[in-house]
């Protein structure tokens, strides 16, 4: 039996132009800036100056629970510049992870939408872990990112 699929969506309007928004979010190096310090997020793969591209592998170490290090590898599967990019987990804590980053111009700036679909490993135990802390931790992570992004982009006005 396939495990339950969960989803999370976050929408935020950024008071910047498309180029500024795209350049910030399509640079993997900025992930550390918008991730809570307690997770001790660190990219361990080599970063290229050529920007984001389909097929790009990004390896991280993250410590989401009790400081225990987890290795996570994602691949950028699709990129349409100034519109969207998608990352999917290749290796890591989830049975399935698909994260869309969408951008569109709106009055007052750029509307950025994050859409995450994920499944937990370990069947019933994974569903229990999701209801106990994983689901809330993801919501908290995206709330933290929203606040941090607001701070970053309001400084650029």
What's the short version?
The protein has 157 residues and is an alpha+beta fold. It has two helices and seven strands.
Question: What does this protein look like?
Answer:
The protein is of the alpha+beta class and 157 residues long. The chain has a single domain, classed as START domain (Alpha-D-Glucose-1,6-Bisphosphate, Chain A, domain 4). The protein is built from two helices and seven strands; from the N terminus they run βαββββββα. The protein has helices spanning 18-25, 123-155, and strands at 5-14, 42-43, 57-62, 70-80, 84-91, 94-106, 109-120. It has a seven-stranded antiparallel beta sheet with strand order 1-7-6-5-4-3-2, covered by helices on one side. β3 and β4 form a beta hairpin. The longest helix is centred in the last third of the chain and has 33 residues, at 123-155. The chain is globular. The N and C termini lie far apart (51 Å). The mean pLDDT is 90.
């Amino acid at each position: 039996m396939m495990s339950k699929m969960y989803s999370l969506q976050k929408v935020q309007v950024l008071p910047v132009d498309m180029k500024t928004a795209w350049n910030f979010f399509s640079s993997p190096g900025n992930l550390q800036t918008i991730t809570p310090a307690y997770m001790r997020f660190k990219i361990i793969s080599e970063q290229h100056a050529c920007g984001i591209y389909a097929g790009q592998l990004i390896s991280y170490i993250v410590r989401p629970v009790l400081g225990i290090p987890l290795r996570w590898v994602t691949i950028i599967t699709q990129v349409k510049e100034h519109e969207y990019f998608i990352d999917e987990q290749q290796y890591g804590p989830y049975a399935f992870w698909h994260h869309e980053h969408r951008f569109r111009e709106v009055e007052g700036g750029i509307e950025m939408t994050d859409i995450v679909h994920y499944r937990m490993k370990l069947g019933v135990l994974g569903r229990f872990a999701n209801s106990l802390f994983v689901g809330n931790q993801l919501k908290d992570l995206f709330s933290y990112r929203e606040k941090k992004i607001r701070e970053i982009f309001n400084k650029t006005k």
